[in-house]
Protein backbone atom coordinates (compact mmCIF):
# COMPACT_ATOMS: atom_id res chain seq x y z
CA UNK A 1 0.00 0.00 0.00
CA UNK A 2 2.85 2.40 0.76
CA UNK A 3 4.51 1.56 -2.54
CA UNK A 4 1.26 2.28 -4.39
CA UNK A 5 0.99 5.58 -2.56
CA UNK A 6 4.47 6.63 -3.74
CA UNK A 7 3.74 5.69 -7.36
CA UNK A 8 0.09 6.69 -7.88
CA UNK A 9 -1.13 9.15 -5.23
CA UNK A 10 0.54 12.28 -6.58
CA UNK A 11 -0.99 11.71 -10.02
CA UNK A 12 -4.43 11.66 -8.35
CA UNK A 13 -3.80 14.96 -6.60
CA UNK A 14 -3.08 13.41 -3.18
CA UNK A 15 0.36 14.51 -1.89
CA UNK A 16 2.45 12.00 0.02
CA UNK A 17 4.59 13.25 2.91
CA UNK A 18 6.95 11.25 5.13
CA UNK A 19 7.72 11.92 8.78
CA UNK A 20 10.54 10.69 10.98
CA UNK A 21 12.62 11.67 14.00
CA UNK A 22 16.38 11.41 13.46
CA UNK A 23 18.90 11.09 16.22
CA UNK A 24 19.88 11.61 18.92
CA UNK A 25 23.21 13.07 17.80
CA UNK A 26 25.86 13.70 20.42
CA UNK A 27 27.94 16.83 20.70
CA UNK A 28 31.18 14.86 20.33
CA UNK A 29 33.76 14.57 17.53
CA UNK A 30 31.97 13.05 14.55
CA UNK A 31 33.70 10.60 12.18
CA UNK A 32 34.24 11.60 8.58
CA UNK A 33 36.47 13.62 6.30
CA UNK A 34 37.69 17.08 7.26
CA UNK A 35 39.76 19.83 5.65
CA UNK A 36 43.27 19.23 6.99
CA UNK A 37 46.69 20.08 5.52
CA UNK A 38 48.76 17.22 4.16
CA UNK A 39 50.70 15.51 6.91
CA UNK A 40 48.60 17.08 9.68
CA UNK A 41 45.63 14.76 10.25
CA UNK A 42 42.81 15.80 12.54
CA UNK A 43 43.35 14.85 16.18
CA UNK A 44 40.60 13.57 18.43
CA UNK A 45 40.51 14.79 22.02
CA UNK A 46 40.99 12.15 24.69
CA UNK A 47 38.55 13.80 27.08
CA UNK A 48 34.91 12.80 26.92
CA UNK A 49 32.75 15.86 27.53
CA UNK A 50 29.00 15.37 27.65
CA UNK A 51 27.82 18.21 25.47
CA UNK A 52 24.23 17.01 25.16
CA UNK A 53 22.28 15.52 22.28
CA UNK A 54 19.95 16.80 19.57
CA UNK A 55 17.26 15.28 17.36
CA UNK A 56 15.74 16.34 14.07
CA UNK A 57 11.96 16.24 13.50
CA UNK A 58 11.45 15.92 9.77
CA UNK A 59 8.58 16.15 7.30
CA UNK A 60 9.63 15.31 3.74
CA UNK A 61 7.73 15.63 0.45
CA UNK A 62 9.44 13.25 -1.99
CA UNK A 63 7.68 14.61 -5.09
CA UNK A 64 9.20 18.09 -4.67
CA UNK A 65 12.09 17.43 -2.27
CA UNK A 66 10.78 19.98 0.25
CA UNK A 67 11.85 19.42 3.87
CA UNK A 68 10.14 20.85 6.94
CA UNK A 69 12.31 20.17 9.96
CA UNK A 70 12.78 21.25 13.56
CA UNK A 71 15.97 20.51 15.54
CA UNK A 72 15.17 19.79 19.18
CA UNK A 73 16.99 18.42 22.21
CA UNK A 74 14.29 15.81 22.86
CA UNK A 75 11.17 14.67 21.06
CA UNK A 76 8.41 13.47 23.40
CA UNK A 77 4.80 13.46 22.27
CA UNK A 78 4.28 16.88 23.88
CA UNK A 79 6.75 18.35 21.37
CA UNK A 80 6.26 16.11 18.33
CA UNK A 81 2.45 16.14 18.10
CA UNK A 82 1.87 19.94 18.20
CA UNK A 83 4.70 20.56 15.75
CA UNK A 84 3.40 17.90 13.36
CA UNK A 85 -0.17 19.23 13.39
CA UNK A 86 1.05 22.80 12.93
CA UNK A 87 3.15 21.86 9.90
CA UNK A 88 0.34 19.78 8.40
CA UNK A 89 -2.07 22.69 8.79
CA UNK A 90 0.34 24.91 6.87
CA UNK A 91 0.72 22.28 4.13
CA UNK A 92 -3.04 21.73 3.81
CA UNK A 93 -3.67 25.48 3.65
CA UNK A 94 -1.65 25.62 0.42
CA UNK A 95 -3.43 22.67 -1.22
CA UNK A 96 -6.36 23.14 -3.59
CA UNK A 97 -9.72 21.69 -2.54
CA UNK A 98 -10.09 18.00 -3.44
CA UNK A 99 -11.93 17.05 -6.61
CA UNK A 100 -14.67 14.85 -5.19
CA UNK A 101 -16.01 13.94 -8.64
CA UNK A 102 -12.82 12.14 -9.71
CA UNK A 103 -13.72 8.40 -9.73
CA UNK A 104 -10.08 7.26 -9.71
CA UNK A 105 -9.36 9.42 -6.67
CA UNK A 106 -12.47 8.13 -4.90
CA UNK A 107 -11.54 4.50 -5.56
CA UNK A 108 -7.99 5.02 -4.30
CA UNK A 109 -9.34 6.80 -1.22
CA UNK A 110 -11.31 3.77 -0.12
CA UNK A 111 -8.42 1.46 -0.94
CA UNK A 112 -6.03 3.36 1.31
CA UNK A 113 -8.61 3.84 4.05
CA UNK A 114 -9.06 0.15 4.82
CA UNK A 115 -9.41 0.54 8.57
CA UNK A 116 -12.33 -0.49 10.81
CA UNK A 117 -11.71 2.26 13.40
CA UNK A 118 -13.58 4.94 11.45
CA UNK A 119 -16.86 4.88 9.57
CA UNK A 120 -16.09 5.69 5.94
CA UNK A 121 -19.33 7.61 5.49
CA UNK A 122 -18.32 10.13 8.17
CA UNK A 123 -14.73 10.68 7.03
CA UNK A 124 -13.73 14.00 5.44
CA UNK A 125 -12.20 14.00 1.93
CA UNK A 126 -8.71 12.55 1.74
CA UNK A 127 -6.23 15.36 1.18
CA UNK A 128 -2.83 13.98 2.20
CA UNK A 129 -1.10 10.65 2.91
CA UNK A 130 1.45 10.50 5.74
CA UNK A 131 4.06 7.73 5.80
CA UNK A 132 5.76 7.22 9.16
CA UNK A 133 7.07 4.59 11.56
CA UNK A 134 4.85 2.23 13.48
CA UNK A 135 5.65 3.65 16.93
CA UNK A 136 3.32 3.72 19.91
CA UNK A 137 3.61 7.49 20.16
CA UNK A 138 2.33 7.78 16.59
CA UNK A 139 -0.82 5.82 17.39
CA UNK A 140 -2.33 7.77 20.26
CA UNK A 141 -6.11 8.17 19.73
CA UNK A 142 -6.08 11.96 20.06
CA UNK A 143 -3.39 12.34 17.40
CA UNK A 144 -5.03 9.90 14.98
CA UNK A 145 -8.40 11.62 15.36
CA UNK A 146 -6.79 15.01 14.72
CA UNK A 147 -5.12 13.70 11.55
CA UNK A 148 -8.27 12.08 10.18
CA UNK A 149 -10.34 15.20 10.88
CA UNK A 150 -7.88 17.17 8.73
CA UNK A 151 -8.13 14.69 5.86
CA UNK A 152 -4.67 13.24 6.58
CA UNK A 153 -4.45 9.45 6.44
CA UNK A 154 -1.44 7.78 8.13
CA UNK A 155 0.31 4.84 6.47
CA UNK A 156 2.44 3.02 9.05
CA UNK A 157 5.54 1.16 7.93
CA UNK A 158 5.49 -2.49 9.07
CA UNK A 159 7.91 -3.98 11.56
CA UNK A 160 11.32 -4.11 9.91
CA UNK A 161 10.07 -1.95 7.04
CA UNK A 162 11.37 1.48 8.01
CA UNK A 163 13.21 1.57 4.66
CA UNK A 164 9.80 2.35 3.15
CA UNK A 165 10.00 5.79 4.79
CA UNK A 166 11.86 8.12 2.43
CA UNK A 167 12.30 10.67 5.21
CA UNK A 168 15.09 8.48 6.57
CA UNK A 169 16.97 8.83 3.29
CA UNK A 170 16.93 12.61 3.28
CA UNK A 171 17.79 12.71 6.98
CA UNK A 172 20.96 10.71 6.39
CA UNK A 173 21.99 13.19 3.70
CA UNK A 174 21.32 16.25 5.86
CA UNK A 175 22.99 14.85 8.99
CA UNK A 176 26.06 13.70 7.06
CA UNK A 177 26.48 17.13 5.50
CA UNK A 178 26.00 18.90 8.81
CA UNK A 179 28.10 16.80 11.18
CA UNK A 180 30.55 14.61 9.23
CA UNK A 181 34.11 15.32 10.37
CA UNK A 182 33.02 18.11 12.72
CA UNK A 183 33.32 18.54 16.48
CA UNK A 184 30.24 20.26 17.89
CA UNK A 185 30.70 21.50 21.43
CA UNK A 186 27.06 21.63 22.50
CA UNK A 187 23.59 20.46 21.53
CA UNK A 188 22.76 24.03 20.50
CA UNK A 189 25.59 23.96 17.97
CA UNK A 190 24.35 20.64 16.57
CA UNK A 191 20.85 22.07 16.17
CA UNK A 192 22.20 25.20 14.48
CA UNK A 193 24.15 23.19 11.93
CA UNK A 194 21.16 20.94 11.22
CA UNK A 195 18.91 23.98 10.77
CA UNK A 196 21.38 25.55 8.33
CA UNK A 197 21.60 22.34 6.30
CA UNK A 198 17.82 22.15 6.03
CA UNK A 199 17.71 25.75 4.79
CA UNK A 200 20.44 25.02 2.25
CA UNK A 201 18.62 21.91 1.04
CA UNK A 202 15.33 23.78 0.55
CA UNK A 203 17.13 26.43 -1.48
CA UNK A 204 17.58 23.81 -4.22
CA UNK A 205 15.66 20.65 -3.24
CA UNK A 206 16.05 17.32 -4.99
CA UNK A 207 12.87 15.32 -5.68
CA UNK A 208 12.93 11.64 -4.73
CA UNK A 209 11.34 8.90 -6.86
CA UNK A 210 10.28 5.60 -5.39
CA UNK A 211 12.45 2.71 -6.53
CA UNK A 212 15.95 1.46 -5.90
CA UNK A 213 17.43 -1.98 -5.32
CA UNK A 214 14.95 -3.12 -2.69
CA UNK A 215 11.95 -2.12 -4.75
CA UNK A 216 13.46 -3.93 -7.75
CA UNK A 217 13.99 -7.08 -5.68
CA UNK A 218 10.40 -6.98 -4.47
CA UNK A 219 9.13 -6.57 -8.02
CA UNK A 220 11.22 -9.49 -9.24
CA UNK A 221 9.93 -11.62 -6.37
CA UNK A 222 6.35 -10.82 -7.38
CA UNK A 223 6.98 -11.71 -11.01
CA UNK A 224 9.13 -14.77 -10.44
CA UNK A 225 7.15 -17.96 -9.97
CA UNK A 226 9.35 -20.91 -10.90
CA UNK A 227 13.08 -20.52 -11.18
CA UNK A 228 15.12 -22.21 -13.89
CA UNK A 229 18.28 -23.79 -12.57
CA UNK A 230 21.52 -22.24 -13.69
CA UNK A 231 20.12 -19.12 -15.33
CA UNK A 232 18.47 -15.81 -14.60
CA UNK A 233 15.23 -16.76 -16.29
CA UNK A 234 11.97 -17.93 -14.83
CA UNK A 235 8.67 -19.40 -15.93
CA UNK A 236 5.15 -18.68 -14.78
CA UNK A 237 4.09 -22.28 -15.37
CA UNK A 238 5.56 -25.16 -13.36
CA UNK A 239 7.83 -27.47 -15.33
CA UNK A 240 6.29 -30.87 -15.93
CA UNK A 241 8.42 -33.51 -14.27
CA UNK A 242 9.28 -36.82 -15.96
CA UNK A 243 9.12 -39.98 -13.90
CA UNK A 244 12.67 -41.19 -13.91
CA UNK A 245 14.92 -43.31 -11.79
CA UNK A 246 14.52 -41.01 -8.77
CA UNK A 247 10.73 -41.33 -8.91
CA UNK A 248 10.68 -45.16 -8.86
CA UNK A 249 9.86 -46.95 -5.58
CA UNK A 250 12.90 -47.71 -3.51
CA UNK A 251 12.91 -51.22 -2.07
CA UNK A 252 15.38 -51.72 0.74
CA UNK A 253 16.15 -55.00 2.39
CA UNK A 254 13.98 -57.09 0.07
CA UNK A 255 15.79 -60.02 -1.59
CA UNK A 256 15.90 -60.18 -5.36
CA UNK A 257 12.82 -61.76 -6.85
CA UNK A 258 10.55 -61.18 -3.85
Unreliable stretches, pLDDT < 50, 5 or more residues? Answer: none
Largest sheet: 5 strands, mixed
| Beta strand count | 7
**Structural class by sheet pairing and helices:** alpha/beta
CATH homologous superfamily placement of the domain at 2-29 and 53-203: Ribonuclease H-like superfamily/Ribonuclease H
CATH architecture name of the domain at 2-29 and 53-203? 2-Layer Sandwich
CATH class value of the domain at 2-29 and 53-203: Alpha Beta
Mean pLDDT: 79
Rg: 26 Å
Global geometry? globular
Side by side, the strands of the main sheet go 3-2-1-4-5
Order of helices and strands: HEEEHHEHEHHHEE
From the 3D structure, determine the CATH topology of the domain at 2-29 and 53-203: Nucleotidyltransferase, domain 5
Distance between the termini: 62 Å
* H/I helix tally: 7
Helix content: 25-40%
Q: Helix and strand layout, with pairings?
A:
Layout: H1 2-9, E1 16-26, E2 53-61, E3 66-72, H2 77-93, H3 103-112, E4 128-132, H4 141-149, E5 152-156, H5 167-179, H6 187-203, H7 213-223, E6 226-227, E7 234-235
Parallel strand pairs: 1-4, 4-5
Antiparallel strand pairs: 1-2, 2-3, 6-7
Helix pairs in contact: 5-6
Structure, described:
Helix 5 (167-179) packs across helix 6. It is built from seven helices and seven strands, in the order αβββααβαβαααββ. It is of the alpha/beta class. The model has no long low-confidence stretch (mean pLDDT 79). The chain has a five-stranded mixed beta sheet, with helices on both faces. A two-stranded antiparallel sheet has the order 6-7. The chain has a domain at 2-29 and 53-203: Nucleotidyltransferase, domain 5. It has helices at residues 2-9, 77-93, 103-112, 141-149, 167-179, 187-203, 213-223, and strands at 16-26, 53-61, 66-72, 128-132, 152-156, 226-227, 234-235.
Amino acid sequence: MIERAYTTAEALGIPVWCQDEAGPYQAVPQPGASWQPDGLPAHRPHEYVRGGTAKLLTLFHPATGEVRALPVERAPNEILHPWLLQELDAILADLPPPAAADPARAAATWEWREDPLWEHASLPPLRLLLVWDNLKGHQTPDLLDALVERGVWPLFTPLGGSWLNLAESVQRILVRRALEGQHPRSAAEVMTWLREQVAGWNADPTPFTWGGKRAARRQRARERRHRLGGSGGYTRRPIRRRLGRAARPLLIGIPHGK
